[in-house]
Amino acid sequence: MTARRRWLRWAIVGLAGHGLSIPVRAGAQLEEPLVDSVRTALSSAIANAAPPIPEFASDAARRTYQQWLRAMDSRLQRYKPRPEVREEFLQTLWYESRRAGLETSLTLGLIEVESAFRKFAVSPVGARGYMQVMPFWSRVIGDGDASRLFHMQTNLRFGCVILRHYLDRERGDLFMALGRYNGSRGKSPYPQAVLAAAQRWTQTP
After folding, report:
1. Which of 4, 42, 121, 153 stands the most exposed, by the fewest C-beta atoms within 10 Å?
2. pTM, entire model
């Protein structure tokens, strides 16, 4: 288990153990200047529109994915009653999370807090879709069409790439990166809520 995974597991278990149920106020990712190299890297990460088809290095890896898919499918049913919709969503989320080097439980927890798994959610400050991506990101690193943020894979791609960017900016500090994602850097309610939600999406044996 990597150090990052150990830290995440310690953080979310600790928060869940305190029984935290925190009302989260809507926040907004802040538009910050990007150096050209970062803008180019983020734009490249967004532009690579490979289909979300899982690839596995071994049969064991495939079985692990299938076990995860079954476990998450049952938990997601309350939000998405149609089996084919759940399967497509989970497959895409798994693909985009791993592509960005994120834990799937973290991505699921963030979506639960941000949009309660509503594809067309719009916040009071204009954030859109599952991962509540601010429209300015379409202009900064995308093609300028903010309406595409309601497309499932596009929204998950943007959200995961942005969170990875914030993690890199914060040198792996998940607490600070989550705060930056919400526009509340340094404040505890949002990171605590996401980490507590992530615990509910952690696969158990």
Report:
1. 4
2. 0.82
CATH code of the domain occupying 3-22+58-200:
1.10.530
Contact by Cβ (8 Å): 162, 72: no
Average pLDDT of the residues in 174-181 = 96
> What is the pLDDT confidence band of residue 55, given thresholds at 50, 70 and 90?
confident
Among 52-56, 80-84, 98-102, 132-136, the range scoring the smallest mean pLDDT is: 52-56
Ramachandran region, residue 171 (left: φ > 0; alpha: ψ -120 to 50; beta: rest): left
Tokens (6 digits) for 142:
């995308």
Bridge partners, residue 133, by sequence: 128
Q: Enumerate the domain spans of the chain.
A: 3-22+58-200
For 91, residues 6+ apart whose C-beta sits below 8 A from its C-beta are 52, 54, 69
Nearest alpha-carbon partner for 132 in 184, 84, 91: 184
